Amino acid sequence: MKNLPSLLLICFLFIACNPTDDTPNRATKNLYSIFEEKQAFDKKEFPSATATDKDVPAFPSIKIEDFQRRGVFWRSLLKKMGGIDTAALSKSDKINYDIFKFILENKIAQVKYEAYLTPISGDGGFQVDFVYTRNRFHFQSEADYERYIKVLEGFKDFAQANMDLMAEGLKKGKTLPKVVLEGYESYIDPQIVEAAEESYFYKPFEEMAEGISESKQATLRERAQKAIMESVVTGYQNFKDFIQNTYRPKARESIGISAQPQGAEYYQQRIKYFTTLPLNADQVFEIGQQEVIRIKSEMQKVIEKINFKGSFEDFLHFLRTDPQFYAKTGRELLMQASYIAKKIDGKLPEFFNRLPRLPYGIAPVPDAIAPKYTGGRCIPGSAKDHRAGFYWVNTYKLESRPLYVLPALTLHEAVPGHHLQISLAEEMENVPEFRKSTYLSCYGEGWALYCEWLGKEMGMYETPYQEFGRLTYEMWRACRLVVDVGIHAKSWTRDQAVQFMASNTALSLHEINTEIDRYIGWPGQAISYKIGELKIRELRKKAEAELGDKFDLRDFHDVILSNGAVPLFVLETLAEDYILENNH
């Protein structure tokens, strides 16, 4: 014990010279303090987005000063993040840091470029999002109906607030292009009904939950009818009048975002956000052109295999017009989709170690939005809110919904695409809450497109026509790289974009026109699919090459899926770590 003073001195010097023991705790605490600050802010600012199934959902305030105030707050958080010693963070918290910082930077950019002045797109916006509202309610108790009615009652004022933003956009030359506003009434007219009972929003009141007295049911129905006619129908009618009489006549003639104030700079920011990689417009355009050439060569091989006599254009015409490729009824289309989905379900354990607990159903796209809606979509569910996910299939205009693309569509929107990925993300444990709901398009859409390609290994393409359908979907995403940049950075006309898509894919002309309007009205988003898919395939190819016999596809899929949606630069690091850990 005689050396105790010397030993204590040595320990003291060691602690003094090596403060890192405390640093990780401090860095982590600071990071999580920022997460908590953001969560508290969101709960106050966006009550509906953070509401539980017992809260009364409320529309957020969307005045210009609200967005500017939020921008100040987000910038303050970003500044705080700059003071965190990232080297002291754990591997998982470094991922949390990178994702949160990326999201913050995008929010700040959206305010900087006044993106809020265009709250609608070519195929979406507040007027379409509101249609989804009904799916958020269970309608099992009187309180559920009360909450739902409160939402209906608030729509008119929320619609007006959006129109106020759009009016300010008109003054500043920041509008949706006029060309995509043609026929925009198709998003609005289904909600303008003569009687509340005809409304899509009235359906929950037709057969109400057991346990609610008849007198109370009558009262709730009366209140719902009033809310639908005075708020919902009036709100949509006011919006239609605004589009027809004020917005469309003064909307910009140019279709590319670069033509509007700060547009070129904003488009580069959109490329950064939607790819999460250091790419510019010319690089995206070149990648797209190279992919179009490669995929077209594969398509030509399928045509030769079928022994079709005629040109590539003749084959596309054949696919678009021959009745054998189209369902005769919406029910038939849904049944085909259901068969394919269940066939995929049976294959999943061969390719994945972990499967989500949350099931999904299959349903048609609601009539209220179907005419200009995409061919299918994943509607995420929530185990927390006791809602299954849904794979929506568009049964509108059946002659534009070819059956040969249905396997690819199902792999993309249902499993192992969006539903599987989003549901697994919600089930993540020991992560900040924001991670479970984060969605980054390059990751989510890239994964779903990768799943279309994975369908070959899963044996999901039973005929050459279905394989051509897969290639058509891949070509569609490759064409997007060319078309999106062409429109927004290279002054392409709408006709140029339509022609490029029509000459390279077997998509129906109706769907091509719908898609082109979507790209015009949503700059940058269309490029995320192919960029993300290429990165995942690149990482898989590298892992296969470096690991050889040690490569396990199920384990690789765990690496891609186990952290939820992450930027591609984070995904690269995760894949590199996986290779290093297994390559010994």
Descriptive report:
The protein has 3 domains: 15-45 and 63-117; 126-253, no CATH class; 266-534, no CATH class. Helices cover 60% and strands 2% of the residues. α2 (23-45) packs antiparallel against α3. Residues 1-22 have low confidence and may be disordered. A 3-stranded mixed β-sheet has the order 1-3-2. By secondary structure, the chain is mainly α.
Q: How many DSSP-defined strands?
A: 3
Instruction: Work out the strand percent.
Output: under 5%
Which structural class should the secondary elements be placed in? mainly alpha
Determine the number of helices (DSSP H or I, runs of at least 4 residues).
21
- What's the N-to-C terminus distance? 46 Å
Number of structural domains:
3
Percent helix range: 55-70%
**Overall outline:** globular
The whole-number mean of residue pLDDT values reads 92
User: Reading side by side through the largest sheet, how are the strands ordered?
Assistant: 1-3-2
Order of helices and strands: HHHHHHHHHHHEEEHHHHHHHHHH
Radius of gyration equals 26 Å
| Largest β sheet strand count, sense and barrel closure | 3 strands, mixed
Low-confidence stretches: 1-22
